[in-house]
Specification:
The complex is a heterodimer of chains A (253) and B (315).
Chain A (H helix, E strand, L loop, with lengths): L1 H14 L3 H25 L4 E3 L2 E3 L1 H30 L2 H5 L6 H30 L9 H25 L3 H17 L12 H8 L2 H14 L4 H27 L3
Antiparallel strand pairs in A: 1-2
Helix pairs in contact in A: 1-5, 2-3, 2-5, 3-5, 3-6, 3-7, 3-9, 5-6, 6-9, 6-10, 9-10
Chain B lengths: L5 E12 L2 E14 L4 E5 L6 H8 L7 E6 L2 E2 L4 H7 E4 L11 H11 L4 H14 L15 H12 L6 E5 L7 H16 L3 E5 L3 H7 L2 E6 L2 E6 L1 H5 L6 E7 L4 H8 L5 E5 L2 E6 L2 H14 L2 E7 L3 H13 L2
Parallel strand pairs in B: 3-8, 3-9, 6-7, 7-8
Antiparallel strand pairs in B: 1-2, 1-4, 4-5, 9-10, 11-13, 11-14, 12-13
Helix pairs in contact in B: 3-4, 9-10
Classes of the chains: A mainly alpha (253), B alpha/beta (315).
């Protein structure tokens, strides 16, 4: 446990050196909801209907925002490998008395706490000021989903950040992933009426699995068995990514 | 239980290269380091020193061979190895966005020190390495030499039994080099085992009880600095200053067939194969003009190093 706490302490010390970063981390999901959500909420004033349930766009969009926030934090955290590598400290870390998995878990545990704070801020402000409706009992489930989502995406992106030596290559990959994963998913719209190729692509996308589970928790949208499959798929994605990330870290020098 | 602090046997590391045969960076390297010893790993650039260090600090996995630190195998038990060591790697490694003091705090946490221990020990190394004025500054604003100082100072905060120093004094000024050398000696006196690489051969000669010279991944010489030096060509250098360095004096020196002769103003520098020639030169010169000053030196570790590397390079 001590090595994990040490990594968390280090992440915390670095994070508080930049107030802009801290502000962005905490407020970003709510800002999405405020700007993007408000625009679409007004455009789709009749609300969004999916799987027989009808909700306001902001209610539909809240889990998407949380899902995007998980992805965003995972990008920032995995990008940290490049900063550490440029400063040489990355290799020194690997000689410290901890396992490779403790290193990764410590890094993501702190960032999961950040995403938890993000989630609480977005849910609270969204409910109070933007008319988002969620069942109060679903909040712990939503926050649990945020933690799992952040960890899953971090381990996935860490595989690439540890394998790719050039940060411009990593940036390009992230831009492509961002475009494909975010838009070929259920983040911004229900996918049930979209063309078959789009639906197939979306159902192969872990962002869809994650968002659908969060949406089921917050707005009750989706069918139970399908959501269970998506939940299982995401957990599998997380475990597989963790395994690959640890293996990659073992060969990272 | 292995009696050595570090035991390396026929260690090999190969790196695959696209379309080419694998590059053997470390080739059947073997050496043993006793507890409390300062051991040197010398060699030209690209010889395989840093790769050997990376294998011993668990950053890389060997292709074959064995290596253990305090009896812990680097492949089978890497965590126990990491618990026994502390390392300064060749790359500059500091947290550039954290203050110098916070660099020590985070390092201390990683190595399991309590907050009280971190405070006491970081103050000690801040004092020892002259970092008091920059303790609240971030390394991003410091010079390269200062960053290196912070990096090296961290190592002396913790009591790990084995210390790895990969060109630790590179980029440091003379005063801090001296402080580092003294700190290394002090730690060895306290029973810690130190393995170091350096390009400054005088430093190795001064610090190391034993050393190996590595070239193209292979050990080409090993032993105490004196033993390794004795493997050189045994050249002697004579420097003599006279009132007037005349043609007659230069002819007298040349009569002894020196390997090299250079002259400037009143001083002649001569490289010879044996001590007796030097004595004969002194006697003949003294007869022509009074010798104001002379100095004679034997082979150094550097001579041996250059000679040994040159021998390997010859077809």
């Amino acid at each position: 446990m001590q090595p994990i706490l040490a990594v968390m302490y280090r992440e915390y010390k670095i994070r508080i050196t930049s107030l802009v970063w801290l502000f962005y981390d905490i407020v970003m999901p709510f800002a999405y909801l405020l700007i993007f959500g408000l625009g679409f909420n007004t455009a789709f004033s009749s609300g969004i209907t999916s799987d027989g349930a009808s909700v306001s766009y902001n209610t539909f969009f809240l889990p998407s925002v949380l899902s995007m926030a998980c992805f965003g934090i995972a990008i920032n955290t995995s990008y940290g490998f490049f900063v550490d590598r440029d400063n040489g400290i990355f290799y020194e870390f690997l000689t410290y008395p901890m396992t490779r998995s403790q290193f990764l878990i410590g890094k993501i545990t702190f960032n999961c706490l950040t995403s938890l704070v993000q989630g609480i801020v977005a849910i609270t402000l969204g409910t109070l000021f933007l008319g988002v409706r969620i069942a109060s009992g679903s909040v712990p489930l939503l926050l649990g989903g945020v933690i799992v989502g952040t960890a899953g995406w971090f381990f996935f992106l860490a595989i690439f950040a540890l394998r790719i030596r050039r940060n411009d290559t990593f940036n390009t990959l992230i831009n492509v992933l961002y475009f494909v994963l975010l838009f070929l998913s259920s983040l911004f719209y229900p996918i049930e009426h979209l063309p078959a190729w789009f639906r197939i692509g979306s159902y192969l996308n872990p962002i869809t699995w994650h968002t659908d589970v969060l949406r089921y928790c917050s707005a009750g949208m989706g069918d139970g068995p399908g959501i269970l499959w998506e939940m299982a798929a995401f957990v599998l994605f997380l475990c597989g990514s963790f395994w690959f990330a640890v293996r990659t870290l073992q060969k990272a020098v | 239980m292995n009696a050595y602090a570090i035991d390396v046997r026929r260690l090999v590391k190969e790196f695959s290269q696209r379309g080419l045969p694998p590059l053997r960076a470390v080739d059947e390297v073997s050496f043993q380091v006793r507890v409390g010893e300062i051991f040197g790993l010398l060699g030209p650039n690209g010889a395989g020193k840093s790769t050997t260090m990376k294998l011993l600090t668990t950053l890389l996995t060997p292709t074959s061979g064995e290596a253990s630190i305090l009896g812990h195998d680097v492949v089978r038990n890497p965590l126990e190895v990491r618990r026994s060591i502390v390392a300064v790697l060749q790359e500059n490694a500091v947290e550039i966005f954290l203050s110098v003091k916070d660099n020590f705090r985070t390092f201390g946490r990683f190595h399991g020190l309590s907050w009280a221990e971190i405070e006491t020990r970081s103050e000690r190394v801040i004092e020892l390495f002259g970092l008091a004025d920059v303790r609240n500054q971030k390394p991003i604003d410091l010079s390269g030499g200062m960053k290196r100082r912070v990096q090296v100072a961290k190592v002396f905060m913790v009591d790990k039994p084995v210390i790895f120093l990969d060109e630790a004094t590179t980029g440091m000024d003379t005063i801090n080099k001296r402080a580092t050398i003294n700190a290394i000696r002090e730690e060895a006196r306290r029973g810690r085992t130190i393995i170091l690489t350096t390009h400054v051969l005088e430093e190795a000669e001064e610090l190391c009880g034993r050393l190996v010279i590595i070239h193209r991944g292979k050990v080409i010489a090993s032993g105490s600095p004196a033993e390794v030096t004795s493997l050189s060509l045994k050249l002697f250098r004579l420097s003599l200053t006279v009132e007037t360095l005349s043609e007659e004096i230069l002819a007298a020196i040349s009569a002894e067939s020196p390997l090299e002769l250079t002259s400037r103003d009143q001083t002649a520098e001569v490289t010879l194969r044996d001590e007796r020639s030097a004595l004969r030169i002194l006697a003949s010169v003294e007869k022509i003009s009074p010798v104001l000053h002379f100095e004679m030196s034997g082979s150094t570790l550097e001579d041996a190093f250059l000679h040994l590397v040159d021998q390997v390079e010859k077809p």
